[in-house]
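Structure (tokenized):
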């Protein structure tokens, strides 16, 4: 047995590292990024802010002013505590580190509807937790409340994740269904609102004061700051105090802290971009649905999931390749015999990028 086989457990050895498609030269509609960046005048002001950062010093380990800015910008209750992460991926990891083994020394469980965000499952694997996926209703990807409640009863998860809206399906689950799950959960329920800027103010943030086991998680990645790696979660003070103990002391670097403050002082620019992206989302949805053999699902996020019907000669893989040949990169979600069979996911880009994408789709389906 090699040293690696001896020291690294099979669950880790069987993983492959997170794969990112090379996007050089492509119209990039694969990763839910906002296509817009700062305007030239904002860029200038931003650089001035950055030039005042003392990078010889460690960053503020718990930036209270930044948290206050977040509270005001995003309507976070004064009663709730906020924890910052190097992207929400790190927040998911922090939760796993704190909860992986319970007080009785038992391996804890993570539960989430599927198809869902892959990192819930991946990070459970990294931290030696059990993971249970509950299949969404296959016809419309709605939340199977009864199946969720049964699975919660059976597996007693320490964490139940619900992405709202869901990735990769794009839909908002029924709010009352989620509230029922929060009420009957065996542990904490994390409502992951990564796509909140596009979700027409649907949020569980106002319910934080009502439920001690509710945590609302957000990221700035999809709203237009993916490169900064910054997410936050809000919840009851007692929970956050525990999670804060397993956080790396300086997890948010000084340039990111300064940039987030700057960005939120100019939040209007992002709000305006979100309006354009939501209008474009409607255009993409309508255009795709006008094609024979294509079914696009309603979305409250900055992407659209669509399915290639069995009744047409092409399939998702060939559509994906044809788009790629035309210089357009989207995400191939196809997995045989799964709810995402023959599905593709396109991120909403600029109007020109979306037009380029749609014109290839028109060519393929007319
Ligand atoms: C993209 C995404 C995240 C990760 O966001 P980062 O802050 O970039 O790590 C979390 N949850 C969902 C549902 C996402 O789609």
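Design, position by position:
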């Amino acid at each position: 047995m090699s040293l690696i086989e001896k020291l690294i457990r099979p669950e880790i050895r069987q993983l492959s590292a997170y794969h990112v498609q090379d996007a050089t030269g492509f119209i990039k509609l694969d990763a839910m990024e906002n296509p817009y960046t700062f305007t030239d005048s904002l860029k200038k002001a931003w650089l001035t802010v950055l030039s005042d950062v003392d990078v010889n010093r460690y960053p503020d380990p718990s930036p209270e002013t930044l948290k206050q800015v977040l509270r005001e910008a995003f309507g976070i209750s004064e009663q709730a505590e906020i924890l910052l992460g190097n992207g929400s991926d790190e927040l998911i990891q922090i939760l796993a580190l704190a909860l992986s083994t319970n007080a009785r020394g038992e391996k804890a469980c993570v539960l989430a509807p599927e198809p869902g965000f892959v990192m819930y499952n991946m990070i459970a694997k990294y931290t030696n937790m059990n993971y249970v996926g509950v299949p969404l209703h296959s016809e419309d990807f709605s939340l199977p409340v009864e199946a969720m409640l049964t699975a919660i009863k059976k597996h007693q998860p320490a964490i139940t994740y619900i992405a709202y809206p869901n990735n990769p399906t794009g839909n908002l689950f029924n709010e009352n269904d989620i509230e029922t799950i929060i009420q009957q959960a065996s542990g904490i329920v994390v409502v992951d609102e990564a796509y909140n800027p596009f979700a027409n103010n649907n949020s569980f943030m106002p319910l934080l004061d009502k439920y001690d086991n509710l945590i609302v998680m957000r990221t700035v990645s999809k709203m237009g700051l993916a490169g900064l790696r910054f997410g936050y979660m809000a919840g009851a003070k007692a929970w956050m105090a525990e999670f804060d103990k397993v956080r790396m002391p300086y997890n948010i670097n000084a340039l990111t802290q300064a940039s987030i403050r700057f960005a939120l002082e100019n939040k209007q620019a992002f709000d305006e971009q979100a309006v354009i992206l939501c209008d474009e989302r409607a255009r993409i949805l309508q255009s795709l649905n006008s094609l024979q053999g294509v079914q696009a699902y309603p979305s409250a996020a900055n992407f659209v999931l669509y399915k290639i019907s069995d009744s047409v000669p092409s399939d998702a893989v060939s559509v994906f390749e044809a788009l790629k040949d035309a210089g357009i990169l989207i995400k191939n979600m196809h997995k045989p015999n799964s709810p995402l069979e023959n599905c593709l996911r396109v991120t909403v880009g600029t109007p020109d990028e979306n037009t380029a994408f749609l014109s290839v789709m028109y060519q393929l389906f007319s």
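Reviewer-requested clarification: The CA atoms of residues 204 and 216 lie 7 Å apart. Residues 32, 87-89, 117, 163, 167, 192, 194, 219, 221, 226, 231 surround pyridoxal-5'-phosphate (CB under 6 Å).
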